[in-house]
């Protein structure tokens, strides 16, 4: 019998997978030194972005049951 693959829990909390299989992430450093950031920078950090293809390949190993 083969062993089950473990999900990388830290990455599972940071990344969401869409129904089509895309990995969506948020920008980092939103709350760190926030008073020095412009309102435009804070608003842009609040959106979700798609991960790059190179990172997507690595995440498929970390999150084996996300698809």
Automatic annotation (TrEMBL):
Example GO BP: translation
Pfam families cross-referenced by the UniProt entry: Ribosomal_L35p
GO molecular function: structural constituent of ribosome
InterPro entries from the UniProt entry: Ribosomal_bL35, Ribosomal_bL35-like, Ribosomal_bL35_sf
Keyword field contains Ribosomal protein: yes
Gene Ontology CC: one annotated term: large ribosomal subunit
Record key words, sorted: Ribonucleoprotein, Ribosomal protein
Keyword Hydrolase: no
Family in the record: Belongs to the bacterial ribosomal protein bL35 family.
Name this polypeptide is given: Large ribosomal subunit protein bL35
